[in-house]
TrEMBL record:
Belongs to the ELOF1 family. It comes from the Eukaryota. Its main location: nucleus. Pfam families: Zn_ribbon_Elf1. This is Transcription elongation factor 1 homolog. PANTHER family: TRANSCRIPTION ELONGATION FACTOR 1 HOMOLOG. It comes from Coprinellus micaceus (Glistening ink-cap mushroom). The lineage of its organism: Eukaryota, Fungi, Dikarya, Basidiomycota, Agaricomycotina. The keyword Zinc applies. Transcription elongation factor implicated in the maintenance of proper chromatin structure in actively transcribed regions. One of its GO terms (biological process) is transcription elongation by RNA polymerase II. It is found in: Nucleus. GO terms for molecular function: RNA polymerase II complex binding; zinc ion binding.
């Protein structure tokens, strides 16, 4: 048996890992790169904070959780809260600053 012939093909370039974002846009004040996520893996808690408007969100984490996952959970929680608010009937606001007249329920 002889030696193998060397291939004239170039080896495939190693894939470079694209780093995930760690700062995000705030949903409330719309400032770019104002939201940061701090993860305490020992405690199993992540805290998301906006530096501008001080919005906060906490979530549970595990060993696979990344900052972008917490940001996505925050977006989902905000959407869910907004959907719940739409289903709650609102009381009509008074058109003047005077109190409404009292209703007398005495039957004579």
């Amino acid at each position: 048996m002889g030696k193998r012939k060397k291939s004239s093909r170039k080896p495939a370039p190693a894939r470079q890992k694209v780093p995930l974002d760690t700062t995000f846009t705030c949903l409330f004040c719309h400032h770019d790169k104002s939201v940061t996520v701090r993860m305490d893996r020992k405690e199993g808690v992540a805290t998301l904070v906006c530096k501008v408007c001080d919005q906060r969100f906490q979530s549970k984490v595990n060993h696979l959780t990344e900052a972008v996952d917490i940001y996505s959970e925050w977006i989902d929680a905000c959407d869910a809260a907004q959907d719940n608010d739409e289903h709650i009937p609102r009381r009509a606001a008074a058109s003047s600053s005077r109190a409404a007249p009292a209703v007398d329920s005495d039957d004579d």
